[in-house]
Amino acid sequence: MAGLYLHIPFCKQACHYCNFHFSTSLKQKDGMVDAILQELELQKDYLKGQTLSSIYFGGGTPSLLSKTDLDRIFEKIKIVHKVAPEAEITLEANPDDLTVEKLTELKATPINRLSIGIQSFFEKDLTFMNRAHNAKEAQQCIENAQKIGFNNLTIDLIYGSPTTSNEEWKQNIATALSFDIPHISCYCLTVEPNTALDHFVKKGKAEPVDEEQAAQQFEILMTTLKSAGYEHYEISNFAKPDWHARHNSNYWLGTHYLGIGPSAHSFNGISRQWNVAHNTQYIKKMTNGQTAFEVELLTKEQQYNEYILTALRTKWGCDFAKIENWGEDLVQHFQKTSTPYLAKKLIQQKNNIFTLTDQGKLLADRIAMDLFV
To answer: Mean of the per-residue pLDDT values for the chain?
Structure first.
């Protein structure tokens, strides 16, 4: 089984914190769809005939695609790939796009899961982030989606914003839980280089992220969702039993996937490749039947680092037997670097599986980097 990711690089407006590749002009949308169809054809052999267990439309804002656009893409996917009957097919969507009319159209496509970028149910947070939707739309879109029949929903929420108090963060979580959503993804606000938020912080126009408060809100999140019956199966992801995101889980478990569209990444276990992050260049290359990616063959050490980075973030953790496959030198390195964290109870070991404790999850990136070769 493998995964397919399609990057749709268009947004109505730029969120202040976002550093993903996108354009706020839709002039090239039709040409982009044509180019995506061409790349699907050019890259049809990348996964070597593996059946797709997940298809994920990310971005950008894929909900800007019309039903005609989606129908064309699905038709091509069906021609060049075998799709499992029970495949998870996800579309990222912004609340302001999810009108009843739009949801009805989406329901008539193979899409069976929506990932909705709520971020917050408070107007001041949405204004600070420069989101395109308002607080009312944040709740209305969930109600609309459920009425139309989209039961497999996940929403994104952001904590750590200087505009969000601990009490307001609790209210955000409570509002999400009131909709009985099976999957919730929560991310700490990060000031990425060269974003509008980065500029505002440097100019003193916005407060930097308070790391202590962000940690408090993460702990509130873990405690509250655990009490509500959600499993914390990856640092940023919580799900009710049997509602794990297949696309995300495949990524963390090292499943092969093909990325289509500008800036999209692909991984086949031994190499990683990434497409050019430029819409015009990407369309031109696809029009001329050329590849648009660079390739990096992963060394043994890079494969080890990749495994540590992804596996340690999950409930499945790092399997010592897998580390042994890379040789005695990396076994010794892992034992040496993990021992201090075991002693501090930031990493725990059970049956040769190493996972982060709740306190360790607060330091996940730092711990992973210390375990790298």
So the answer is: 96
What CA–CA distance (Å, rounded) separates 234 from 184? Answer: 11
Quick: pLDDT tens for 102-118: 999 999 999 999 999 99
pLDDT tops 90 at residue 251: no
Q: Which structural domain range is residue 136 located in?
A: 2-252
pTM exceeds 0.90, yes or no: yes
Q: Do 125 and 54 reside in the same domain of the chain?
A: yes
Sign for the CA dihedral angle at 116, 119, 121, 123 comes to negative
Q: Report residue 168's pLDDT band, with 50, 70 and 90 as the boundaries.
A: very high
**What is the per-residue pLDDT for 248?**
87
> Tens digits of per-residue pLDDT, 67-111?
999 999 999 999 999 999 999 999 999 999 999 999 999 999 999
What confidence tens digit (pLDDT) does each residue in 25-65 have?
Answer: 999 999 999 999 999 999 999 999 999 999 999 999 999 99
The answer on 33 and 121 residing in a single domain is: yes
Which CATH number is 240's domain given? 3.20.20.70
* Spatial distance between the Cα atoms of 82 and 49, rounded to a whole number of angstroms: 7
